[in-house]
Amino acid sequence: MSDAHLEELHSELCEAMVAGNLGELGPLLADGFTLTHMTGYVQAKAEWLEAIDTGEMQYHRMETVDATHSTVGSVPVLTARTLTDATIWGARATWRLTLRSWFEPFGDGWVITRTVASTW
Description:
Layout: H1 3-19, H2 22-25, E1 29-36, E2 42-44, H3 45-54, E3 57-72, E4 75-88, E5 91-106, E6 109-119
Parallel strand pairs: 1-6
Antiparallel strand pairs: 1-2, 3-4, 4-5, 5-6
């Protein structure tokens, strides 16, 4: 998987989050996808998508400040520092988030298997 492809998938993820477009967001994520929030809470794919659908989590704007690529064994990893303007469980702020995402092949493409968010 090329670095450009990793960044393209990350961009698609961010755009779908901001648009609240579950039809685009869901297929980017593996069935067993988890999002670990900066609080340490691990949220399953279905729960996260439901929170976006109900408006509990609204992403207003995401700007990727920089991104780096690495591998863990043979697994591609993208670490992106973002400025994320979001309303999460009623609290709106712009968070400086580091989103570290792991990828795996699926069908004729790639999906994100998990993302861990922390602050920078």
